[in-house]
Amino acid sequence: MKVFRNPLFIAIIFILSILSQATLLAADTKINMNFKGADVRDVLRTIAELAKVNLVTDSSVSGEITIHLRNLSFQDALHLVTQVHGLAYKWYDNTVVVATPERIDELYSNIVVKTVDVKHADLNQTASTIMEIYPELSIVPDNRNNKLIFKGKVEDIVKGEELLSKLDTEKDSTARLLAVPVDRAEFLVNYLQRVYPELIIESDGKGNLVFYGSPANVESAGLLVSKLMEQMVGEGQSFGEVNVIESIRVNSIEVEYVHELVSAMYPEANIVADKKNN
């Protein structure tokens, strides 16, 4: 009989058994069964069904086993079956995963937990959206601290964070039109994009700059331009009218088509199509 006696493995199992105490308390059914020459996967599946525990067996689990289980809890039966057959297991939330020790290391050695700040988006809705796209991630909303707790492989968490950065935006956006000297427009666009990378800043080539983003950032960028222009053109010299304009999201029609149509109908209006944000 081959018995797996790795001390580190036993220590890990002990820690995990504590962390999953709530799950184990629900699985308090005593198991009394005999197995002779049975497929080890069928044995594991049977004791899990008796204890009403979710169980996943990896493809690395194979072979037959003969074992007598008498008056054992699911935890003890699971420990005995896996030890006798040279297997390992790990609790993942309310599910136990069984595989060879090498496969367990491969599956879970890269599992980490990370908390990520959320500034604007709804925590529960955002967590649900990200997990729909990346189901291998486990995400728990921390409403008290306005954070999301990610659990998964490092590479999957990176993908989840990238998606979060696109979802975590202010719901209310505004736009501002600034008239500046034509020969200063390119300099201002390049400068402001470094200072406010989250803003969309465009120049029409005729001395008009358009800012699009959160009201706070648009307002701050406008004040900065005013200060810069005072230094460039001299104290008290006007550099154009500042107009706050409305931002309208287009849901079902091509934004460029709407831009062309409305511009033709109202040529006196200055309309900019923001294709990135529709």
Protein described:
This protein is of the alpha+beta class and 278 residues long. Helices cover 43% and strands 26% of the residues. The chain contains ten helices and twelve strands. The protein has a four-stranded antiparallel sheet with strand order 10-11-9-12, with helices on one face. β4 and β5 form a beta hairpin. α3 packs antiparallel against α4. The chain is rod-shaped and about 90 Å long. 15% of the residues are buried. About 11% of the residues have low confidence.
- Biggest beta sheet attributes: 4 strands, antiparallel
Low-confidence stretches: 8-27, 235-244
Alpha plus pi helix count: 10
Number of strands: 12
Helical amount among residues, as a percent range? 40-55%
What sort of overall outline do the alpha carbons produce when their principal axes are compared?
A: rod-shaped
Oligomer kind: single chain
Mean pLDDT level: 79
Which percent range describes the beta-strand content? 25-35%
